[in-house]
Every structure is written in structure tokens, then in C-alpha cells.
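S2.1 Query sequence (CapA family protein)
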Amino acid sequence: MIIAVLVAGPAAVAGCTTGADAQHAATRPPSSRAVQPTHAPAPLATATSPATAAAPAPGPFTISFAGDVNFAERTADRLRADPATVFGQAAAGLRAADLTMVNLETAVTTGGQAQNKAFTFRAPPSALIALRDAGIDVATMANNHGADYGAAGLRDSLAAIRATGFPVIGIGRNDAAAFAPYRITLNGTKVAIFAADQVQDETTLRLFSAGPTSAGVANAWSDRLVRNVRAAHRAGYVVVVYLHWGTEFHTCPNGDQTGLAGALAAAGAAAVIGTHAHVLQGAGWRADGTYVAYGLGNYLWWRSFRNNQDDNGVLTLTFRGGKVVADRFAPSRLDDRGVPVPATGAERARITAEWTADRACTDLTATPPK
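Output C-alpha cells follow.
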């Protein structure tokens, strides 16, 4: 149960930006999972006084990550029917960790102007409620579809985030807000999660990359990302970065991915998670101990392609002592509703083998370095 509310306000991370629309802080007790989500935002609460309750001793905690989520065609139909049941059988797996995060690959608006690109996605504010109801705790909109409906769509997205109280990072009314982390205490450990977009998409990176006075998404090509990660690490946070990057339909990471992963690891990131390629990419530990998952694929998705684009899963990382000490991948596959149904039997074995094989073209290992 969350005992200190998700609030917007100045960062407590030394050297990080302040005044962010999408910046949040929360605390969870040991072995925590929030109570079943409801359609209403969490009520305000008063933090426990140090005089009446001692802070928990730092211990291990878990964070689960899934890939790309959007609401178009078949998944839009599910959203209209009932936000609480959109994720179907997948919801139980999403609720299992202390914290769960996905990439929300859509503008949150019913208006705006569709940008000049092959695919544009938008969803009503109920999309954020659907995420909460599925057991998801935070999402990133730092991707090449977060600004699909222009400046008006961005304003609507930010208004929906404020109205629902659902934490979304990687997007904001300016670059300070877009680069601000989601902050939470898990089992006595301070955690800061950043998000940014490395996809060289005309709409997002040139027209709607957040600037000093302009709304948009966090641009991973800016040195601000690495600087903020370094500052958070030095301030005592365990740092996670969720990125939108890679080459579509390629199971191997490209040079931009490996280069940025190395820079973030050097800055102190404990884990770097990615999406965008629409297929699974390799995951494991770098020699320096940073865990990298290059691509988690399509998760709740508007179309199926009857190939490896339909394979996905939930990656759960266990953190202890500031590092990822264990990983677990629970494979799933899109069904005709766009729901990632947990895989069983031969299908589970096939997707697990695919996940393992994708590591071969990376410099990652299946176990932490000694």
C-alpha cells in the first residue's frame, strides 16, 4: 500500500530538474503491492511521522517491465467496453511485483491534429485508468507516438495525466518536466526512474522534443539524460532508465542503443530497459553489472502479425544493494483481442528460447558478473 502519495513537486534528486508536471514521489513498505487499483485517483495522505514509525531497513525489491501498449482498433474496442478489464489475463502478472512499468505508445487525447506520418495513435484519458486498473504503477510516453496529435494533443495528454493522477514520465510542459524522474522508495531503497526517446522520428524529435519553454518528450540525444542519471546516482538513488530506441523488426541492438546503454551504465544506472523494435531483443548483464533489456516488444497491441512481433512478456528484476541480482522473464503472446496472454507449454518454451537466443548478438550475460 502506498503510504506517501504520488505528488507533483520539486525533485529531491540532487542536480535533477524541478517544477516537473510528471514528477512524482512515493513510498512503499516492505513486501508491498498496492491495494487493487480503483477508477479514482489515490486520495491525499499524510506521510508517517519519524517519531511514530521507523523507516524500514533497506532490502530487496522487484520491478516488472512490459513493452509497448496502445489503444487502437481492437484494443480501443476493449477500452470502450471497460477500462478495468482491458488487459484480461495479463493483469495478474502485472500486479505481482512491487512496481510495474510499461511504455504507453499513444497521445492521450480525443482532439488535436494528426501529424504527417504513416501511423498515428491517440486514446482517451480512460487509457490511463486502464493502466492503473491492470496493476501498472507508472508509464513512459517518451516515444515516437506521444505527440502524434500535435501541440493540442500534447496539452490534452498533460491535462489527462494531471486529472487522473496516474504517473507518466518522459513527457512534460517543458524539458525540465520531461526529464524529471519518477521517484519512489521500495523496501527502504530510494529509486529514480527516467524515460527518454532515441527514435529519430520527425514529429517527436524535431517538432515535439521538449524544450525550455515548449512541451514535448524527453530527447535521449540530449546530454541532459546522462547528467540527470549521474546526479540521481550520486544522491543515493537506484536508477532505472526506460528508453524508446532501436531498429524496427531487428532482434539485435544497433550502435546507438549499445552506445547509450554504456553511457548510462557509466553514469550509474542499475538497469536500462527498452522498446520500439516491435520484437524481443537481448537482455542480461553488462560486464560492469548494469542490467540491460534492449527490447520488450509489443505488449497490449492494436494488431497481430502472426510472427515474432506477437511474442512478448513481462520482465521482473530483483534489486539488492543497488544492483539487479536476478531476472525472470514470463513469456506471453498476443491473441486476437490484442491481449498478451501468458504462454504455456510448447509456446512458453518457444518464446523463452527466442528470448535467450536474442542475447547472442549482445555483449550481455545470463548471470550477474562476479
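The two ends are 35 Å apart (CA to CA). Confidence is low (pLDDT under 50) at residues 1-23, 29-52.
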